[in-house]
């Protein structure tokens, strides 16, 4: 079901993350999951809603401000520090909450993206106890419940809700604005650092492309028609592009570091940003490195699957695509060799090739997901 059908059902101030279920979901499944969320994550506030047109149930999930503060401490969320305490960015700590900017303001201390990240972190780390099961789904001890239910189709969708107020403001200052700088700080606050960094790079790249475009246009204008003049201009333009590309990369490194420092991700290790894959299966053991419990899957089993299943399947898929392309090309040559055929028939092999490529893309995507799930679990 479309995300838009739920967006205005409940104001986003009362919901940060929405969880929907298929219309065939029974009451036992809903009550089982609701009970586990309320017992396992008491910080969350869950409201059950029923969409009257599609008959689909949904959980509207949010949390109180005090709970979000504890969650920010738990995940090490980096927040700006007041100038009198040194400024800069620091991982949030409930014991020293007074040192952070806007801590007194419940509405503006957390951005919507930060609230949603904390709540999704809790949801994705709801762990199963030993011997727990739901219908024919048997959980391993310590296995994340919600990602497994989402992978099995018990949960249809889990997604954050937009805030219409902020979207309208971004629409005016960003989408509809002409010849104005992008509001990168507002984009970062709402969509997160990754999205903001992408659009920062895109804007920087677009601006930097002006230089080769102008220089290339000037060269094209003043280039003579003789071959010698054209060759010289090509060499000059190639040298210019080499210099431009070098300067572009170095300047972006500096600009990207400025944004990373400003948004508090310059010295954030990559492993602390993303959680390990929640669907990972294996046997529990004590890590020889960290001495903590972890799921372990023997490398020889993964290698065996890759050699006996993944590699043959990939080779078979490549062979099928290659043969289908050859058939389409042969069909194209055969059609072109018959002069009496109508013009529209001459495009038939190309249309067939386009349909085959689209169908193979969908099929191979599903095969790739399956190989990825089976090959690393």
Automatic annotation (TrEMBL):
It is a multi-pass membrane protein. Keywords: Membrane, Transmembrane, Transmembrane helix. GO terms for cellular component: plasma membrane. Pfam families: Anoctamin (PF04547). Its main location: membrane. InterPro entries: Anoctamin, Anoctamin_TM. GO terms for molecular function: chloride channel activity. The keyword Methyltransferase does not apply. The chain crosses the membrane at residues 199-222, 228-249, 303-327. It is found in: Membrane. It comes from the Eukaryota. Residues 187-374 form the Anoctamin transmembrane domain. Belongs to the anoctamin family. This is Anoctamin. It comes from Ceyx cyanopectus (Indigo-banded kingfisher).
């Amino acid at each position: 079901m479309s995300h838009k059908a739920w967006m205005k059902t409940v104001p986003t101030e009362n919901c940060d993350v929405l969880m929907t279920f298929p219309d065939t979901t029974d009451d036992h499944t809903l009550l089982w999951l609701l009970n586990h969320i309320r017992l396992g994550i008491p910080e969350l506030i869950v409201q059950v809603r029923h969409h009257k047109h599609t008959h689909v149930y949904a959980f509207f999930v949010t949390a109180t401000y005090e709970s979000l503060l504890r969650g920010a401490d738990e995940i090490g969320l980096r927040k700006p520090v007041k100038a009198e305490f040194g400024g800069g960015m620091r991982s949030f700590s409930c014991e020293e909450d007074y040192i952070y900017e806007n801590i007194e303001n419940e509405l503006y201390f957390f951005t919507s993206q930060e609230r949603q990240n904390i709540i999704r972190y809790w949801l994705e780390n709801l762990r199963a106890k030993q011997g727990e099961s739901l219908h024919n789904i048997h959980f391993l001890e310590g296995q994340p419940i919600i990602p497994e239910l989402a992978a099995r189709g018990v949960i249809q969708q889990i997604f954050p809700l937009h805030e219409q107020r902020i979207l309208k403001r971004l629409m005016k200052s960003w989408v509809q604005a002409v010849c104005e700088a992008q509001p990168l700080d507002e984009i970062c606050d709402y969509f997160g650092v990754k999205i903001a960094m992408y659009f920062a790079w895109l804007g920087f790249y677009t601006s930097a492309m002006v230089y080769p475009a102008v220089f290339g246009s000037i060269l094209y204008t003043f280039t003579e028609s003789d071959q010698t003049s054209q060759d010289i201009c090509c060499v000059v333009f190639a040298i210019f592009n080499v210099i431009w590309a070098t300067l572009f990369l170095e300047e972006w490194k500096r600009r990207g570091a400025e944004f990373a420092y400003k948004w508090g991700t310059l010295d954030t290790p990559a492993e602390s940003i993303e959680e390990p894959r929640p669907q990972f299966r294996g046997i529990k053991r004590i890590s020889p490195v960290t001495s903590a419990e972890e799921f372990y899957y023997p490398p020889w089993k993964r290698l065996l699957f890759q050699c006996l299943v993944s590699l043959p399947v990939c080779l078979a898929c490549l062979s099928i695509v290659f043969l289908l392309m050859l058939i389409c090309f042969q069909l194209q040559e055969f059609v072109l060799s018959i002069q009496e055929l109508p013009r529209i028939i001459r495009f038939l092999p190309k249309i067939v090739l386009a349909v085959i490529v689209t169908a193979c893309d969908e099929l191979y995507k599903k095969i790739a997901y399956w190989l990825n799930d089976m090959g690393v679990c």
